[in-house]
UniProtKB/TrEMBL annotation:
Chief location: nucleus
Localization: Nucleus
Name this protein carries in UniProt: Transposase
Organism, as annotated: Trichonephila clavipes
Spans annotated as Disordered: 55-74
GO annotation, cellular component aspect: nucleus
SUPFAM superfamilies, per the entry: Homeodomain-like (SSF46689)
Length: 106
């Protein structure tokens, strides 16, 4: 199909793109026209514009979910231990790293 745009999975609007959306929607452009100009879906453009009109900000929201309990350095130590000895137990890793970890972390 010629003219079909490639889908961008799980990518958010950049700060620059958010500014373009807000500026062009403020100028009276349609959502469809703005989406074509910034090469994004109408849904992404609509969501960015609704956030601007509702909250007065275009800042990205922080991610959801639980906060991290281990640092990247501790994560690397855990992975290194698991690669060196695949039979290592969680209690051994916990003692070496010094952080209480759950099985999902490993």
């Amino acid at each position: 199909m010629p003219g079909k745009r490639a889908r961008r999975h799980f990518s958010q609007l950049s700060e620059f793109e958010r500014g373009l959306v807000i500026g062009r929607k403020t100028a009276g452009w349609s959502t469809c026209r703005v989406a074509g100009q910034v090469d994004r879906s109408e849904c992404e453009v609509r969501n960015g514009w609704e956030q601007w009109t509702r909250e007065g900000t275009h800042a990205r929201k922080t991610g959801s979910g639980a906060t991290r309990k281990t640092t990247r350095r501790e994560d690397r130590r855990i992975v290194r231990q698991a690669l060196v000895d695949p039979t290592v137990t969680r209690s051994t890793i916990r003692a070496d790293v010094g952080v209480a970890i759950v099985p999902q972390t490993i």
